[in-house]
Amino acid sequence: MSIELVSLDTIQEIAHQYGYWAVFGGILLENTGIPIPGETITLVGGFLAGSGELDYWLVLGSAIVGAVLGDNLGYWIGFYGGWSLLTRIGRLFRLTEEQLIEVRDRFAENAAQAVFLGRFVALLRIFAGPLAGTAKMPYVQFLLCNLAGAAIWASVMVSLSYFVGRLVPLEQLITWVAQFAFVALGLVIGWIGLVYWRSTSANTRPSA
């Protein structure tokens, strides 16, 4: 999630005031499907741990638990709330219903990979849980992929800001992470487009 919606100063103030609860709550709400900068809050938490204000392991634990619970809430919201709720969330990102249908169908075909790796992809981190529920992904499979993905993602984010945050300004680090996430999003969109084009071409190709 981009930090333009909430200033970095505001996020740092929240993290200073609420500490581990800010990390836990921020990533929980983002993974539930609410578009707030949970990733940025997690990076700020790791940075504060690197400066000695917070404990590294508690920040990491807060991020993992928040990510797992948030995605689980998102899953059940998508499972029971259905398609109408997801389209409302999609409007916040100017995504049409046709685009969401395409994303949902491609997601269902690659659900395990999407849940596991989606945390590193802009927007998909927010939509992964609700999409998994809407696509009726088996819950045990979702839970395992979600837990593994959350542990790896949180470890990378917290460790990155914990160590690299000592060498570069926090704002620059957050910009790099956001750029990586959007590059990953571009690659995912490109891959979906390629698969869609190939399937369309195969269907329209005249038979011999």
| Poorly predicted spans | none
Report how far the terminal alpha carbons are from each other.
Answer: 49 Å
Run of helices and strands: HHHHHHHHH
Mean pLDDT: 77
Instruction: Classify the beta-strand content into a percent band.
Output: under 5%
What would your notes on this structure say?
It is a single chain. With 208 residues, the chain is an all-alpha fold. The chain has one domain (3-204). It contains nine helices and no strands. The chain has helices at 8-18, 20-32, 38-50, 56-92, 97-109, 111-117, 124-134, 139-163, 170-204. The radius of gyration is 18 Å and the shape is globular. The mean pLDDT is 77.
Quick recap of the structure?
Helices cover 79% and strands 0% of the residues. The chain is an all-alpha fold. 41% of the residues are buried.
Core attributes:
single chain; 208 residues; mainly alpha
Strand and helix map with partners:
Blueprint: H1 8-18, H2 20-32, H3 38-50, H4 56-92, H5 97-109, H6 111-117, H7 124-134, H8 139-163, H9 170-204
Helix pairs in contact: 1-2, 1-3, 2-3, 2-4, 3-4, 3-8, 4-7, 4-8, 6-8
